[in-house]
Design a protein that fits this description.
441 residues
C-alpha cells in the first residue's frame, strides 16, 4: 500500500484537534465514572439532596459535562473520517481509503467488545462509533450546508423520540399517582394503575437501596464470573437493545456536525476569532441557561421521583430541550477552547496534546484503571461523587503522564497502533518515533 494512503504523519497533525480531543477524553471520564464506581441508581449520592460536596460536584458535572463531553468526543470522530478520506477526493480519487475506513469501523466494533468483556466497561462508546462510522460514509462529500441540514433533522428526530418516551413515562407516573390516592382512600385500582404504581415505586426504591441490595451488587461486581455477567448484560442493553439505535443516531448527528465545522475551518483553528467568540457566547449562554432551568426544576423534588409534584408539561419540555442544550454547550466549548489554545504553545497545551494524540489509548486506560480500583481492589460503591471526581483528576494526571512519556519513544499510542494495523491491512504503520523528530508537543 503506497504512502499516499498511509496514516497521517506527525507533521500533518492539526494542533487544535489534538487539544480538543485531549480535553474531550478527559471530560468524558467524570460522567462515565458514575456508572463505573457506584451501585444502584444512587450515583454515589445520598438522598434527599443537600448542599454537600457530593451533590455540588454532581451538579457541576451535570451542568457542564453530561452530554457535551460525549458530544465533543463524538464530533471529532467525524473529523477523523474526513482526514482519512481526503486522499480519496480530487480529480483522481482512490478507492483504497474507503476500504481502510470500513476496516477501521469494524475494528472499533472489536474494541467495543474488548471494553465490556475484558475491561468491564459496559457503557463504552466504541461499538456505537463503529456502526455510526459506517453510516457516515453517506455524508463524506456533503457540503457544510447539507451537513447542517442533516444534523438538524437528526437532532429534531432525537428530540421528538426522547419527548415521546418521556411522555409515556410521565403518563405512567400520573397513573401511579392516581392509584396511590385510590389505595389511600381504600378504593380498588385497575391492573394498569397497579402496574404503573409498582413501576414508580421500584424506581423510587432504586434511589434508596437497602444495605442488603447494595452488598449484593458489590459482591456481583467484585467476583470475576458475576462481574462479566453484569458487564455483558449492561452492554447488551445499551448496544443491541431497542434503544441502541438512539445512541447510534445521536452519535451520527454529532459526527456530521464535526464534519461541517471541519469543512468551514472551525476545527482547524483557521476561522476568524470573532466566530469563536460568537460560538462561545451564544453556545454557553443558551446551553447553560437551559441546563440551569433543568436542574432548578429537578431540585423542586430533591431530584427524587415525587408523584405529588410531577408536571407533564415540564417533563416533556425538559426532554425536548435536552439535545439543543447539549449541542449549544458543545459548540460553546469549541469556541472557548479555540480562543484559549489556538496557536498556543503554553504548558497546558503541551500537556493536553499528547492525550489527544493517544485518545483511544487514554480511553482504554480509563476503563482498565477504574476496573482495577473498583472491581479488583473492591472499592465499587465505596465513594461519593466528590471522591469519584477526585479519582477522575488523578486518572487524568496518570494517563497524561503516560501519554507524554510514551510519545517520547513512539509515534502513536498502543491502541492507535493496533487500530491502524487492522485498518491498513497488509501495511505496517510505524510504531517507533523517528529519533530526528523533536519531542512531541
Amino acid at each position: 500500500m503506497g504512502a499516499a494512503v498511509g496514516p497521517i504523519g506527525r507533521d500533518e497533525r492539526i494542533a487544535l484537534l489534538d487539544i480538543l480531543r485531549g480535553i474531550a477524553v478527559c471530560a468524558i471520564l467524570p460522567v462515565n465514572i458514575i456508572v463505573m464506581g457506584t451501585v444502584g441508581s444512587t450515583k454515589g449520592l445520598t438522598y434527599p439532596a443537600r448542599w454537600d460536596g457530593d451533590w455540588i460536584a454532581w451538579g457541576v458535572q451535570r451542568l457542564l459535562l453530561e452530554g457535551p463531553a460525549r458530544g465533543l468526543f463524538t464530533m471529532l470522530f467525524g473529523v477523523g473520517m474526513l482526514l482519512m478520506l481526503r486522499r480519496a477526493e480530487g480529480d483522481r480519487p482512490d478507492a483504497v481509503p474507503f476500504d481502510i475506513w470500513t476496516r477501521r469501523c469494524l475494528a472499533l466494533l472489536l474494541f467495543g467488545i474488548v471494553q465490556f468483556a475484558v475491561f468491564f466497561w459496559p457503557g463504552e462508546i466504541l461499538w456505537t462509533y463503529g456502526i455510526a462510522g459506517l453510516m457516515l460514509l453517506a455524508f463524506r462529500s456533503a457540503r457544510p450546508r447539507t451537513l447542517w441540514i442533516w444534523a438538524i433533522v437528526i437532532m429534531i428526530g432525537l428530540s421528538a423520540f426522547r419527548t415521546y418516551d418521556t411522555a409515556k413515562t410521565a403518563i405512567g407516573h400520573e397513573r401511579a399517582h392516581v392509584a396511590e390516592q385510590l389505595q389511600a382512600a381504600g378504593q380498588p385500582v385497575s391492573d394498569t394503575q397497579k402496574a404503573a404504581l409498582d413501576a414508580a415505586r421500584a424506581t423510587q426504591a432504586s434511589l434508596h437501596p437497602g444495605e442488603e441490595s447494595i452488598a449484593a451488587e458489590v459482591r456481583q461486581r467484585t467476583s470475576l464470573g458475576s462481574l462479566f455477567g453484569w458487564s455483558a448484560a449492561g452492554w447488551a442493553m445499551r448496544h443491541i437493545g431497542n434503544y441502541s439505535w438512539w445512541g447510534v443516531m445521536e452519535s451520527l448527528g454529532f459526527m456530521i456536525v464535526g464534519m461541517a465545522l471541519f469543512r468551514t475551518g472551525t476545527l482547524t483553528g483557521a476561522a476568524p476569532a470573532g466566530r469563536y467568540r460568537m460560538m462561545m457566547i451564544w453556545g454557553l449562554g443558551i446551553g447553560l441557561t437551559l441546563r440551569l432551568c433543568d436542574l432548578a426544576w429537578q431540585a423542586r423534588t430533591g431530584f427524587e421521583l415525587d408523584l405529588d409534584r410531577l408536571n407533564m408539561t415540564a417533563s416533556v419540555l425538559r426532554s425536548l430541550l435536552y439535545e439543543p442544550a447539549r449541542l449549544a454547550l458543545t459548540l460553546g466549548y469549541v469556541g472557548l477552547i479555540a480562543l484559549l489554545f489556538r496557536g498556543s504553545s503554553s504548558h497546558a497545551a503541551r500537556a493536553i496534546a499528547p492525550l489527544g494524540r493517544m485518545a483511544l489509548t487514554a480511553y482504554c486506560l480509563q476503563s482498565i484503571l477504574t476496573s482495577l480500583l473498583f472491581y479488583a481492589f473492591g472499592y465499587v460503591g465505596a465513594f461519593g461523587y466528590l471522591a469519584l471526581l477526585t479519582i477522575s483528576v488523578a486518572i487524568w494526571a496518570a494517563t497524561g503522564l503516560f501519554a507524554a512519556m510514551w510519545l517520547r519513544h513512539f509515534a502513536m499510542g498502543p491502541a492507535e497502533w493496533l487500530l491502524r494495523a487492522i485498518a491498513y491491512a497488509g501495511s505496517r504503520p510505524a510504531a517507533r518515533r523517528d529519533p530526528a523528530e523533536s519531542s512531541p508537543a
